[in-house]
Amino acid sequence: MYFSKSFIPILKNNPTEAKIKSHQLMLRVGMIKQSSAGIYSWLPLGFKVMKKIEQIVREEQDRVGVQEILMPTIQSSEIWKESGRYDDYGEEMLRIKDRQNREMLYGPTNEELITEIFRSSIKSYKSLPQLLYHIQWKFRDELRPRFGIMRCREFYMKDAYSFDLTDEDALFSYNKFFLSYLRTFKRLNLSAIPMAADTGPIGGNLSHEFIILAETGESKIYTDKRIFDVDYSSTLIQNSSLEKLRNDYEKFYSVTDEKFNKEEFENKVLAEHRVNTKGIEVGHIFYFGDKYSRPMNASVDFDGKKEFVKMGSYGIGVSRLVGAIIEAKYNDKDEIMKWPISVSPYDCAIIPMINKNDSSNLEKSNKIFEYLKSKNIDAIIDDTDENISAKIKKFNLIGIPYQLIIGKKTEGDFFEFKEVGSETQKLKIEEIASQISKAKSN
Ligand code: ATP
Ligand code: MG
């Protein structure tokens, strides 16, 4: 891809309407464009990042045995009347009437719809557990949409739902998601901590929020810093192993302000271990038993008895994660962004110095591009006639983690190569490709 042909509308300066760095950067490098309050179009750069995040989320759901489906964005009000939430949900729900004057709505979440799907087909306890997820747009008419795609009205979410016969089985399902979330955020190069949370309007009794630390986050958090060192890598998908994992985390005090109690915090956490800061909620899991299955009559036959299934729901803010990663990785003082290679819009920027009447650097760039492509490395060539330092500044903002510069200092087979934030190296193209490939496979 040539930069001159790409749709990456860069702004000269930070947009003044944006208050936090992720919002500034996303507008500055043309990842998104606002279409109306809290509603955005995703332009190529932003969309590429979001799609990569989505794919990682998907793979980690699949890995713990969750099945992917796709439910619609528009739902009928009938099922929400059954659960009793049609009135409770209030003004955050966007209500629509169709031409027959039927009450419809744009789904803010899908507990009702999935329960309806489940109850229409699953009749025997032998089909349990059922673990299902989808990745779909949601609409919540937030009172104060702000911070760009961090708190917007239309957003992209992975939501999963579990159905089990007993509380114990349901806990096993819950713990599978707990592990899959830790794995997902690790692959996004984020350290997300699980925190005991309130269950809010979704209701129920067991819940964790997954929070990444960031000064601009909306959640206040109080935790024991040793929680960052909990190692889950050897956890198996077995009851005992998953319970041990939960215990390893729950040993440490870790709550958001809703559950915060000063006395408890000071009693349980030594002063030198106390962390009191802010964070961004990127995921939220709930166990709520028969809260929906009972009013909606979703049951299975067990030993001739009707049992309401025990349910949980599990969300990840896929679009919010794009902003959250920027909050975690962007150095706004030096204006340097570095995407984790797992989600970067491109793997490598090829930055040639372009002289008038001399196309040799561009030809070199084309050859390098083809070579990298043959190694499965996705590069973009900056074929514009800006000077080298302007180009580097631009790519520092865009955040592609590797830059290959073809300029005055290029000697024979050796190219200037830089991992953003590190020293420049002089390497042969084969070595460059293998460094990038190695980073991609980690
Ligand atoms: P919040 O407390 O931030 O409003 P929530 O508890 O309402 O979140 P859930 O219903 O658990 O959120 O939704 C699952 C995930 O979807 C959240 O963890 C968050 O990452 C994301 N999310 C929720 N609301 C928004 C929004 N308005 N804009 C972008 N992402 C959102
Ligand atoms: Mg909310």
Structure in a nutshell:
The protein is α+β, with helices and mostly antiparallel strands and 442 residues long.
Question: How would you characterize this protein structure?
Answer:
With 442 residues, the chain is of the alpha+beta class. The chain folds into two domains: 13-329, 2-Layer Sandwich (BirA Bifunctional Protein, domain 2), CATH 3.30.930; 348-441, 3-Layer(aba) Sandwich (Rossmann fold), CATH 3.40.50.800. Helix content is 32%, strand content 27%. The chain has helices at 21-28, 44-63, 77-83, 85-88, 111-121, 167-187, 239-250, 262-268, 318-329, 360-374, 388-398, 429-441; strands at 32-36, 39-42, 67-68, 74-76, 94-97, 103-106, 130-139, 154-164, 192-196, 206-213, 219-224, 254-256, 274-289, 299-302, 305-308, 310-317, 348-352, 379-381, 402-406, 414-419, 424-428. The strands form five sheets. Strands 3, 7, 8, 9, 10, 11, 12, 13 and 16 form a nine-stranded mixed beta sheet that branches. A five-stranded mixed beta sheet has the order 18-17-19-20-21, sandwiched between helices. Strands 4-6-5 form a three-stranded antiparallel beta sheet. It is globular, with a radius of gyration of 24 Å. The two termini are 25 Å apart. The mean pLDDT is 95.
Features:
9-stranded mixed beta sheet, 32% helix, Rossmann fold, binds adenosine-5'-triphosphate, BirA Bifunctional Protein, domain 2, 12 helices, 442 residues, binds magnesium ion, 27% strand, 5-stranded mixed beta sheet, globular, alpha+beta, 2 domains
Strand and helix layout:
Layout: H1 21-28, E1 32-36, E2 39-42, H2 44-63, E3 67-68, E4 74-76, H3 77-83, H4 85-88, E5 94-97, E6 103-106, H5 111-121, E7 130-139, E8 154-164, H6 167-187, E9 192-196, E10 206-213, E11 219-224, H7 239-250, E12 254-256, H8 262-268, E13 274-289, E14 299-302, E15 305-308, E16 310-317, H9 318-329, E17 348-352, H10 360-374, E18 379-381, H11 388-398, E19 402-406, E20 414-419, E21 424-428, H12 429-441
Parallel strand pairs: 3-7, 17-18, 17-19
Antiparallel strand pairs: 1-2, 4-6, 5-6, 7-8, 8-16, 9-10, 10-13, 11-12, 11-13, 13-16, 14-15, 19-20, 20-21
Helix pairs in contact: 1-9, 2-6, 2-9, 6-7
